[in-house]
Structures are given as C-alpha cells and as structure tokens.
Amino acid sequence: MAPVTRRSVQAGSGVNATKIVHRKTRSSRASSQASHAWNNADDDEDDDQNINGYDEPSDGDEPQVSIEGPHGVAQALHPLRELAEKVGNEVESFAVALDKFVGELPVSPGERYEAAQELVLEFKAIAQESVTELRKTHQRERDAQLKEEWSKRANVAAASISLTGAKSLAFGKGSGLGVSLFGRKAESVKALRQWEQEVDVWELFRLILEIHFRPHDEVWQEEKDRELSSLDPPHRYTPESQLWDRFLIEDDIAKERALIKRWLEETADHQQSNLAGIFEELEAKSGAGKGLWAKGWVNTREKIKAEKRLRTWPRASEAIQPQIRRSDNEDLLVTTLDPDAMSRQQRTTEKPDQFFERAFWIACWDMLRRGKPWNEIRQWCEEHGQGWRAVIMNKAGDGSDVLSNAAWRKMCFLASQSGCSNEYEAAVYGLLGGNVKAVQKICSTVDDNIYAYYNGILIRQFDQYLQKVAPNSLTACSGGRALVDESFQDPEQAQQAITDLVIRLRSKPNTQAESVQPLKIIQSYLLANETESLINTLGYAISDLEARTRADNTEGVVIQQMRPLTDVVMPETEIALDSNALRIVSHICIILSSLRGTSLEDDLERNAEENVIVAYMQKLREAGKRDLLILYASQLDRERSIEALGHMLHDVTQESEQIEMLKLMTDSYHLDTTFVLTQHLYWLVSTLGIDEETNYRPLKILEESGERYHPGQRIKPDFLPNEMTQRELELVRGLKWFVLLEGHWDLTFWALSLAMRTCLINGRVACALEIVREHPFIDISRRKSHQTIKRAINIMEDTVPALSEDGKERRHLEWMKRQARTYYELEQLMMVVEAMAQWAFHEDPYVSKLPKPTSVPIGLKQAKTEVDEYMAPLLNGILRNSNQTDELRDFEQIRKMYLPEIVIAYQVFLYTAGSLITRDCFLESMDLSVSVANEKNGLAAALVVAGRMRELVTSFAYSSKAILTLKATNTKPWRAKKDREGRDPSIWDDEQARGQKIHSQRIWIGNRKEWRIIPWLRLHGDPELPVIVEEWYETREKMQNAFGFEWGAVQEQPGFPPTFSIGGFAVMLGLSRQLLAGIIGAVNVRSDFIHAYDANLDW
C-alpha cells in the first residue's frame, strides 16, 4: 500500500579515526572541544581515568590512515558497503510519519518538543514492527549466532575438559559454535539484528531529546519542584534509597547517566545473547548439562573426602594443611569448602569445579549487566543451591531501607582488587563497588565498556552527593578514594570523558571493528551529546566520499564539496554507505532542524547538514522510492531543493508518476516547480557532450554514386542515426515534464528549443529526431494553447483569428507565435531530414530492382511530397531572428552545420525525382537556385561559409544537362503547366530559337575579347536577365581567394550549355542572375562589377 502522505490526502571501513568537523552545539550547553576528534589513543589507557583515583594522562597523538591509489580507497571503504536497493518498504512508513510531523509542526518550542518525542516513538515502533516480523522466521538462527559470538568473547571453551580427560564438549549439543549462515537467511538475520539495534538507537535519541533538547521553561521547572516536594527533606536518618531519588532529581548529569545506564542494561538482551542462551552454552561446555548448577565443588569435595579416609585431618585454623594435588596438574587443592577457601589458602579446586565457579560468576555478571533486580538474582541463586552468593549482592537490591550502603560498596571495591577466584568474580564486585578497572577486564564489547564507565562514575558521583547531604555516612569508609571531584558535575568535562572513552574503544583490538560500525558510530555521538556534530561530520564524510567516486558518478548527486580531498577516510563514511544508518541520521537531522526552527547561519554547517539529507534522497532514488523525494527536498533551503530535485528526476519515466510528482511539488509542498524543471533541463543538457565521431559535419546524408539517376551523389538509404545513449533518452523523457506542466507556454517552448539546439550543436541528430517524434509541435501547441487561451490551435497557422476586437488577443497570439517559432523551425529542419530518409528508403529498392517496375511506387511519391512540403519553410529562411545573443550564436552554428548538407541533398533529390517521377523536378531545381540566391534566407551565405557552394552548383549543372538530354532523347512533347511561369526546356531547342529575338547573355572572359552569346532562361517573368561580368582582373583575386581554385577557360560539351570553368567548378550560365550575383556578392565583390542590359540579338 502506498504511503498516506499529503498527496493521498489531497487526492483522496575505516578502522582509524580522523578529526571530526566539529559543529557548534546548542547554546543551552557548553561546546566540547574534545568533539574535534574521535581520535585513537593508547591501548594502555584505562577507561576509568580519574575514577579510581589514578592520574593517568591520555595520549593526544592522532594516528591516521594514509590511502594511496584507488585500490587503497576501495579497501578502506569496503566494510559494510551496502547498496541502496536494499532499502525496504519501511522507508515509506518513516516518510509518512515525517510528513505528518512537518505538516502539523506546532509553533511553540514546548509543543514542538512534544511532537518530536512522539515522532521518535513512532520511528521506534516502525523499527520494532520489523523486528517482530523477522523474529517469526529467524529467531532461532539469530539466537544461535549470538550464542556463538558470546562464547568466543567469554573464553570459556578451555574449561570444558572433564576430570576423566574426555574429549571437549565445546561443540556438543546446545552449543552455538559452528553456526554458519549463507544467502538470504544470513541477510535476514543480519537485517533482524540491525533493526534491533535501530530500536535501541531511537530509544537513546529519545532520551537525548528529553535530557538536552527539552525547553527548560516554567513547565519543566514546575515538574522538577513537584517531584522534590514529594520527598521528605534530607536528614541524618533518611534512608539511602530516598537520597538516591533526590539525587537523580536534583542533579541533571546524574539523571542522564542513570537513564543511559538503564538503557545499556535493556539493550544487552537485544544486542547480545539472552540469559537463557548463556546458561545453555555454559551447561553444554561443562559436560554436565543442567546438572552444572547443582554440583558445586563436587569433584574437590570427593577428593577431600578420599584424603580424609587416609589421614587425620587438621582444623581449618591450623597453619599446616594437607598437600592435595589436582588430578590434572601439580596445583594444590583447597582443604575446606567455604567460599573464602581459595583466597585464604591461595589454592585452587579441581578443574570441573573451577569451571563451575567461573560459570556461576559469569551468570551473576550477566544478570547484573542486564539490570535484573536483586530479588530475581537471589531467587535464581537459591534455586541452584548458591544462596550465599545472592547475600553478598543484597545491598545492591532496590528499595533498601538502610541508612547507608557506602561501606558495603567500599568492601566490594576492595574485594574486586584482590582475592577473587577469577576475573568474573572480580567484575561482579567491581560492578557493585564502582571499580571500572575490574569490570573492564571482562568487557569485550563497546556497550560493556560504556556500561562499566557509567556504572562506576554514577556510584562515585552518588558517594560525592552523600558527602554533601549525609557526610556522617561516609566518614568511616572514604579512605583510599578521592570522593571530591568537580569533574563529575561539569557538563563539558562529562561530555569530554565520553568522547575520550569512545576514542579509546576505537583503538582497542577487541572493540576496534565494532566501534566503527555505522549504528555504533551514531550511538557514540548520541552518548557524547554531540548529535549536531554527528550531522556535521557526516556531511563532510559524504562530501569526501562523493569526491572520491566522482569519476564513477553518473547519477549527478548534488553534494556540496566542503573541503579539499585528503587521503584519510573518516569512520563516518560507513554511515554514508549504509542505507539504514543514513536514514536514521537524516531523520535525526530533520527533527533537530525542526526543533531549532530556523536555518543555520553558517554556510558550511548548513551545507554539511543538507549533504546528509541529499545523500539520503539519492539512496531513495536508487531504491525506486522517487515519490518520497519531494518530502525530503522540502526540508532543504530553496536553492538546494531546486538543485537536488533537478538532478534526481531523470529516471521518472511514467507519465502518471510525473503528473503525481508535479502535483506534490506545486500543491502539497509549494516548491518552485518551474525552477526545479529548469534546473533539471540544464543538468540534462550539460551531460550531452560533443559527439566527436560526427562533428564537424554531424549529418551525412549524401554519398557518391555513378548511377544515371543521380548527379554524382545520392541520398544514403541508412544515413539516419538510430542509436541513442542513456543520457539522450533521459533528455527526451525530461522534456515531458514541461509538456505535463499546466500552462507555461513560453517555458515549455523555451525548454524544447534549448534541448533541440543543444542536440544539434553537439551532433546528436538521433536525439533531436526523437524529441520531435515524442513532442510534435502541433500537439504541444494545441495542448498548451488550450491551457493558456482556452482554445486548442496550431499557433503557426496564418489563419489563426484574433479573439477580441481590441487587438489584445491578437497581440497575445503574436507573442505566443514568437515564443514557439524556434522550436517549430527546428522541428521543420528535422522533419526534412526524416522525409529524406523515407525517400531513400523507398528509392533504393526501386532503382535496384530488375527489371525496373513500370509504375513508380506510391511510397516514393508520398516521400517526394513530404520532402517538398517540409523543405518549403527552409527555403524561405529559418533560424534568422532572436533577441538573445546565445540563441543567435546557436542559430548560426546550426545553419552552418546542417543547411548546406540539406540544401545539396534537396538538389540531389530533385535530380533523382526528375529522373524517376516527373521531369518538372528539373525545373524545380532552377527554382532552388533562385531560392539559394535570395539573400533574405541566408542559404548562399551558409553554403559559402561551409565551403560547399561549388558542390551545389556542380549539382545544378547536372540538372541543366539532364534537361537538354531529356529534350534531345524524348519525342514526347513537354507540356507546360500553369505554375511554370514561362519556364520550358524548349528554349534550348535550336530549331525553335532560330530567327527569334530572345534574351541572351554576354560574359567577358580573360582579356575581354573572347565572348559568347547563349540563350538565357526566362525565370519568373524577369526581362532584365542578361549579365556581364566586367573589371575582370580586379575581381579575379578576390574570387580565387574565396573559392580556392584557378580560373579556367570556356568549355563546350555536346548537349551541354556553354559554361565557363573555374578549375572544375562548373557554373551553368543558365543560372538565374540572382544566384550568380549571390555567388559573387558572398565574397564581397562590388555591385558595380555586374551590369544588366538587354541584348536583342538574332540567334
């Protein structure tokens, strides 16, 4: 089901850290200079610096990764590289929720905060739905995978050897080791675990909003005062539990730490194996199954009993004890079974009992780590015959009414430092007493280390609070630990401490890889209260990533370059490569921007923030979620939204989808639609480079031919290009946006003409032809005119009437015609080319077929009619006028590139048609010469500039020769037609011309002494046609330089009219005066070199 957005309502890795590009945080809290760098630090530096009273300086050096060459870059960016097509349907649910949020965003800060909290809860619910759905089919595989990971981290496999030396049961029944997943199942389990982490991330972000982004207004203060008033004033007999509640209300930093500590406890079951799985794994490794918990030190007890049967047994208080050795080595066994025996006697137990001891403390640690209440822990211990262990943790229970537990915490702290049977026992005591070092020794995950820090710092901070409100409770037990530490109360130092911790975790071998996973990076920024810096740093990482991949980037991602590219790959790049992580940060970015209420003033910060949203938009586009682009574009600044959408519409191909997106842009989100489409067109045309294979003459219509039907050339049957690139297809489709856009007559035809001009100038004829096929002028004119003047018309028809007597409508129609003329003329240019292709398609099989058919094919005749029809506007002159300099420049280039080839091809076409269809085409060739000579249409100038006038006139000579040849060989009289205006080939007939006075022409050749008189065709009823060329020696140099050849002598050939030759440049003297004048005028010969006069001479 499609998302219910405003549309439907209206319609019905990098393993080393680099410096963070730090962004200024909110004014309500201090800015941390430490957030300038998530640096690496010494592995030896402890996470509990200054917590246990040690003064251990940190290493400020910042190792970086140097990447050389493209292979190094690819290797650094390889981890967790996810393709955008993996974006699921959940993104639509996020978009629907966000659309509702931004569409109904309240004005007051308090209401905005409440709306943001509700939105985050909705995001969490969406992620939770995905978790629930995936757990239905992949819960077992997920649990097995987590058990395997836990077993490797816990390092308990070596303790599974039994007393009898049996084989290890580490891989026995119930063990998660060896679980391997492949294919879709592996991807599904991975997705399940990522969604579980996302649920936790959204909950953490909700806490951060509650702690740091809630407006500290009167309502907030009233709630705080009300909570404090519900508690009794502190006094020396106040129970510690009440002091703890007051402590969390009064101290905002303590409250934050307590909330995050509780969050870390809740996430342990999501991101690590659950308790049941841990117990099963321990039972499997022990070899005793569920009997593991009921055995106790059974093997050591049996060994002691056996020794007691053989000797007298001393009291436990006696100094000398029996020397009993372990079964598997020479270590001494304890001689008593009390819990303190191992620490007191400095002895051990049998190996299975040692494993049991370790396993039990592991179970206690994991229960405490998950925040299980003391009653639940006590019940579990009692059920397994180890109630005494629950007793020592009793003081950690909730709801204790004792006056102070400070002494008990101190004892746990000291116990964790020495005398423990294994590191897990020490960790349990350390967790209860606040000894971060002891806990840290068993921490193998990022969250465990962070939990150890928050637990320790919170205990120390509470003890410090007790010293202020109940100093008597700490007097006897504060020795050995410095309780007074002002850094506990300083928000800036507290934030710095978390930053330093994350830096150290990124350098430790057992947490290095995990700490740079995308969601863990997000989590680290949230914990450090550096959410804005996360967005800013990610914006820089996206900029660097785009710069590295720009050579391979064909999609036109609009990413602002923030700085010169370096060889250092930022860990935050992993977020940019992970679609889900990028989605999370993008929505966090929009939420914070909405809470802020205004755009960032700093350009770099604003560009970095918008880089995040634009990068997510690109992921959506790649995943086919194009209808969501406009929602996220509306969250950008106006210029950036125009630019971003303008680069992301090229693969929207369905007309219905285009119409829908136009409505969204215009009606729902009120974007500048015309600017977006204009930007889109500019980007599309910018991707069309010059086709080097076709330029400078992109259109090659003609080829040499020796057939008698052709004047030395013919129109190639396959000259029309038909292959188009992907970019060309996108340009053709991109113009559909303007056609579908309601109204905007001038913008539509401007876009069409710009696309056509760009294609033709760059030699992309196939694309230009496809444009006019997909967007015919007459269809566009009728559609847009109906939207503009409520009447569907072809604006280029001369019979278009004015719609009002006052002339206003007539002036408007004239304006519409001017706006549309360029595209109309460019369409005519392409239609001529296509008509010529149709002619060649029909002509080639006709002339090649033997014997030759007696009748001309209908297709050939129709093609002839179409060529003449589309050629007429070109002969009258096209692309001559414009008010824009760039457009005039394009016109000149297009005329130079295409008109010479088309005009010469048309002359060849007329010659061939005269031979195949009707001899009237030879006379039409004479008309063509008149049109070429007309200075108003600029055809002669285009031919001269292109250097192809000689080629055209040579073809004219073939037509003239054909007229005489046909007259001499054809006995059928040539009957004049009404529209010939006196033109008739019989003027070349000597018998008819003898004795008659006709117009003739004199031409001086060389030394003015040699001249000829020839018949002159009477064209268009002009009696003043004789031409004489004088001042020969003065003009010859100009003509020679212009045409690049030597003047020759007069030639006469049988059956061919007298000509003068210019180095093979045969100029038929039967040409019109206008053409000859045009040829000479094109090279700037003075007009007085040409004189016309009547010469009434007898033949």
Descriptive report:
The chain is mainly alpha-helical and 1099 residues long. The model is unreliable at 1-87, 158-178, 978-982, 986-1036 and 1038-1099 (pLDDT under 50). It contains 44 helices and 11 strands.
Topology:
Blueprint lengths: L5 H6 L57 H9 L12 H14 L5 H46 L28 H31 L4 H12 L10 H11 L1 H20 L3 H12 L5 H4 L2 H11 L32 H5 L5 H19 L4 H10 L3 H6 L13 H12 L5 H11 L2 H5 L5 H24 L21 H15 L6 H4 L2 H10 L3 H18 L24 H5 L1 H18 L6 H20 L6 H5 L4 H9 L8 H14 L4 H14 L15 E3 L8 E3 L10 H9 L1 H5 L4 H17 L3 H10 L2 H13 L18 H41 L9 H19 L8 H32 L3 H14 L5 H8 L2 H21 L20 H4 L3 E2 L1 E3 L10 E3 L11 E3 L2 H12 L6 E4 L2 E7 L2 E4 L4 H9 L8 E3 L4 E2 L1
Antiparallel strand pairs: 1-2, 3-11, 4-5, 6-10, 7-8, 8-9
Helix pairs in contact: 3-4, 4-5, 5-8, 5-22, 5-25, 7-8, 8-19, 9-13, 13-17, 16-17, 23-25, 23-26, 25-26, 28-30, 30-31, 30-33, 31-34, 33-34, 33-36, 33-38, 34-36, 36-37, 37-38, 38-39, 38-40, 38-41, 39-41, 39-44
Number of helices: 44
Side by side, the strands of the main sheet go 7-8-9
Report the end-to-end length measured between terminal Cα atoms.
Answer: 92 Å
Q: What is the general shape?
A: elongated
- SS-based class: mainly alpha
Q: Beta fraction of the residues?
A: under 5%
GO cellular component, one term: nuclear membrane
Protein name: Nuclear pore complex protein
GO molecular function: structural constituent of nuclear pore
Pfam families: Nup84_Nup100 (PF04121)
